[in-house]
Amino acid sequence: MLEENPQQIYLRSILNKLTTIATRGESIMKNISSLVANAQKNKHDEAWLEFNSVDERVQKRRYGTTQAAELAGISHSLLYAAEEDGRLPKPEYRTDTVKKVRSGYTMNHINHMREVFGTAPRKPEGENAAIIGVLNLKGGSQKTTNTQLFAQHLARRGYRVLLLDTDPQGSLSLFFGKIPDDTVNYEHTMAPYMLEDEDALIEAGYEEGASETLHYAIQKTYWSNIDIIPSCLQNLNIDLLLPKMQEKADTNAMQRVMKLRYGLVGVSEDYDFILVDGTPSLNISTVNVISACDMCFVPTPAAMMDYASTLKFTGLIRDSIQSYDEINFYPNIPDIRYFITKYTRSSYAQFMGQLIRKVFTVERGDVLSNEAYASDEIGKANNSIYTIYEQNPSESDNRKRLKTTIEMFDNLYTEMHDAVWETCFEDALKTSQIDKIDQIMANAQAESEAQSKETVSLEREE
């Protein structure tokens, strides 16, 4: 038997070490959601938890009666009355207290109230969902964190949100309980749609024609009004195989860069907002994401290296648009806005904030007026697999700081919401309002003419 050489021995020792690390890590990732969910079992009814669990995730944050009614857009007396007469389910009670204490209401409860009473906000009738990208080349710029938090901010307000995770790392998917390369594989991502891989979807049990739209990839999350198209490492196949597939199919330039937009518009009927978490690189997927979006927000940390990266990203988008113009090719180009992240009160961060505003502001609103300050609350929340919007204040070790952090992000995301609404829906709203005015005037004119005819008729009779 041949003896192994030193290189073989070394290689296999490293392989064994990495295999052990990966096995341990993957085991924890598979079970962490259930560990977090188990922490709720001593407080709430297990049957309710099981019924409402999605990917072993349940909503942790509970709101009192007054808060829940306010969020639902109704009075607390109407909430009580609706629970009594059956329009709403009976209230739930804590299982870990001697006295009979209401459990409170999750956002899913509140969304049900909005449905019952018709108080949920909606995009203008007949409009597609606003497609919003959160993009930057720089890793660590808080793209995923802000995509997740912005989605939950919108969902708390009652909007219907679809998330698209385009990053092969799948961090956004993991936040919502979809484990990349375990519960999420190639056939669950946008890749078969982008690559028109009908065979893979049929083999996975989907019906014929599934690859023609993105409907097959949409999954529910433990938030009743947030759905997601998840991602995994096999999303890398898009950039490897898409050019060959499009060349073989003789796809024209517009179809190549607008493929993703066509897919997202095709599933937008059931949503008010579609948020896209971009990849930390410029590739075919990123070009498709840019062309898919109505608006892009670029998170820009208040640091020189991040500023330089954002500047480079802006230059690459400029070069792409310039090349389009040179060949008279005009795909969809989004409105691009910037916002400052990892902001602090240090003189250095203040200087970088001023520099970012001076360079990136050409028109009013190019750089959002609200910053995302660096906060320990974000890190603590992420460690518990629940965001700041999902933390019960009573369980926080610093309620005041948690409240301040939520208010800060609410201000930022309200500004984002208003910018999106103005860009995407203002014309539709103006048209709708003008149509209403025209209808009112037409009705008034018709009524006036009818009165005139009636007067003439009476005069003749006399």
What does the model show?
- The chain is an alpha/beta fold and 462 residues long.
- It has 2 domains: 31-117, Multidrug-efflux Transporter Regulator, Chain: A, Domain 2, CATH 1.10.1660; 130-426, P-loop containing nucleotide triphosphate hydrolases (Rossmann fold), CATH 3.40.50.300.
- It is 52% helix and 8% strand.
- The protein has 16 helices and 7 strands.
- The chain has helices at 6-38, 46-52, 65-72, 76-85, 107-117, 143-156, 171-175, 191-194, 198-203, 236-248, 253-266, 284-292, 304-326, 347-360, 376-383, 399-461; strands at residues 130-134, 161-165, 219-220, 226-229, 273-277, 295-301, 335-341.
- It has a 7-stranded mixed β-sheet, sandwiched between helices.
- Strand 6 (295-301), helix 13 and strand 7 (335-341) form a beta-alpha-beta unit.
- Helix 3 (65-72) packs across helix 5 (107-117).
- The radius of gyration is 26 Å and the shape is globular.
Q: Could you provide a short overview of the structure?
A:
The protein has 16 helices and 7 strands. The chain has 462 residues and is an alpha/beta fold.
